[in-house]
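Issue 218. Parser rejects a valid record. Input:
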Amino acid sequence: MKELLCPAGNFEKMKAAILYGADAVYLASDMFGMRAAADNFTLEELGEAVKYAHQRQVKVYVTVNTMPHTCEYERLKKYLKAYDEMGVDALIISDIGVLTLTKELIPNMEIHISTQASIVSAQTATAFYNMGAKRVVLARELSLKEIKEIRANTPPELELECFIHGSMCISYSGRCLLSNFYTGRDANRGACAQPCRWNYTNAAPITFAEEKRLGDNLAIEEYKEGSFVMSSKDMCMIEHIPELMESGIDSFKIEGRMKSAYYTAICANTYKMAMNEYLKNPSEYKYNPLWLRELESVSHREYATGFYFDNPMDNPQTVTQNGYLREKAYLCVATGEKDGEYTYFTQRNKLCENDYCEIITPGQCGRGFVATGLYNDKGEKIESAPHPSMKFKMKVPFEVKEGDIVRSGDK
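Output the parser choked on:
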């Protein structure tokens, strides 16, 4: 059975991932994770998160994938013991020192080797297996052909995990020093400022060359929006589910702990629908174009298939336009309460009477309707729901369940 692994930047995002189809979630506590700017979880909150997930048969993997300095190891011991006591299913590790300490301190803990370890060969994957790893997260820079070769030449007990959707890094497997150079924030300790996404201007000639290779000029290509020599496209593999399912990958990973709960829900829902469609009957699998429409509704950069089919040396997958393609407005979420033909919602963004909307339910693409019959929680008729987190009710011409999302729509 293939696993769909989704990001959980906080408790709300974790709930969204689980409701919309995640088989497992990955998250971090307030120390030792590679997304220090995410909300993350205190140890107490993490314990509650593990309970919540396990009650719903969902696994929890905790990232411990920074490169700790010597002075941090005493605190790390405390965190490792806490993870073990609360029943975390696995730790995602990149540093050999952390791996060694984990094996010594909590030998029964399942270990996954992070993509930060830049695993690109069967030999390295097997070496980590011999060191006690249950799973390796392969480098994003590998092609589908190379992944199949790794699967064919590694122990069958070793699980392979690969990213299939979300942001990519212009540096190799995320090992970047640009943030350190510009801001002093260490990308390898979870504090990346993402200077690869900044706008740059031509402060020098637009071509350059190594001094002994003056004939081999490299161009900084400029579009009308600016120059993008470092900002990478986002990965999207929704159109290639059969290739992924048949590749030997055990776990399909969605990037995005810094993204919204809406992003998490939509990505989990879409890939789960596609995976389930394949599992019904692989020989009769049909791609649904609405799946890509769903993924285009979330905040993202230009989509590409990463390096599954392209060599990084031939196609670095850098963007051609600035910034994000913005997601549709996440208007409200269903509370699960009913009042006759009315359904109660909690507001996330302003919703007005007669707005055209779409409702998202686990296992289904967005369905359109016109918002009518808006009332506040006192039963008073209202023209809009303008206040953050306000509770209101409205008519929806579909069955609505707790956690269903209403977003802005296009007629």
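Fixed in the parser; the record now loads. The mean pLDDT is 88.
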